[in-house]
Amino acid sequence: MNVRQLEAFDAFMTTGSTTRASAELKISQPMVSRLLGQLEENVGFPLFLRKRNQLAPTPEAVLFHAKVSRSLAAFQDLEQEARSISNRQVGRIIVAAQPVYLDTFLLDVVARYKQQHPDVAVKVIDAGLEDLLRMFHDGSCDLGVGITLDASPYGASLLPLGKCAAVCLVPKTHRLAEAKRVKLDDISKEVFVELAIGSPLRTRVDYMMQSAGGQRKIAAEARTNRAVHGLVRRGVGIAIVDPLTSLLSINDDVVALPIEPRIEWEMAVFQHDDRPLSRIESAFVDTIRTEAEQLQEKGVLS
């Protein structure tokens, strides 16, 4: 049996005649009769009593129709689902991102994406770089946003979004707040708020400071750039952070200053290298790229 036969049967059972069924299906009456005859042969039991060239459903046909009507409704739902997927309207995306990106521009990405794809569920997960790579390795996320590195051993490929240069955060009341830029040598004696040990940026700053012969005084440590920003804002110390952290400032309460020498890295979208992006994933990546372009226009990325 096929769907067209079942549709003819449903139309006949609903309207009570082959003539009305043909009008509903917009096919000829002989075609309806042919489809009903084919269906009866396929099911293996009588569906109709034939009297004076008219069809009357058997009790078995009535029972069978209840199942057919439910199956056709489910099939119509499948057709609608397929159309929605084709139009990038439904589905689910799981995105893992390093906290600084989730705290800042990714919120705008999700909001913009949901306006265009309201029926796509988006789950964003706060993940350090090691956790992000692990999630790609075990397949528990679809996309990721983090700093670039060799991610191929974890089954991920990278789409660079732009170059980041670390900035120095100081409270607006700090003596350096009016400076155009700061040198690492000039701030080596300052009190710092730092990311926790193990952070790629923390590791790099520690190395550069030690190479310069400086021993920093660290007043406090925190896991996320948001927490570091909050501590700087409260006057606990200054900090060297991802440039996107400056987007957290309220009423210019914290000033972000360029650093010399520059401490740079690239931000990228992580995607699985063993399968192509789905349509909804591709649309999400396009939204990320649009937002990254706006960050470049603002000078946050280069």
Structural class estimated from helices and strands: alpha/beta
Determine the fraction of residues in helical runs and give it as a percent range: 40-55%
Unreliable residue stretches:
none
Shape field: rod-shaped
Please work out how many helical segments DSSP would assign.
Answer: 11
Biggest sheet details: 5 strands, mixed
Sheet-strand content, in percent, reads 25-35%
Strand order of the largest sheet: 4-3-5-13-6
Q: State Rg.
A: 31 Å
The averaged pLDDT comes out at 85
Element order, helices and strands?
Answer: HHHEEHEHHEHEEEEHEHEHEEEH
Task: Tell me what you see in this structure.
- This protein is an alpha/beta fold.
- It contains eleven helices and 13 strands.
- It has helices at 3-15, 18-25, 29-43, 59-86, 99-103, 105-116, 129-138, 184-187, 200-211, 225-233, 279-298, and strands at 48-51, 54-57, 90-97, 119-126, 143-147, 156-165, 167-171, 182-183, 191-195, 217-222, 239-241, 254-260, 264-272.
- The strands form four sheets. It has a five-stranded mixed sheet, sandwiched between helices. Strands 8-12-7-11 form a four-stranded mixed sheet. It has a two-stranded antiparallel sheet with strand order 1-2.
- Helix 1 crosses helix 3 and helix 6 (105-116) packs across helix 11 (279-298).
- The longest helix has 28 residues, at 59-86.
- The two termini are 61 Å apart.
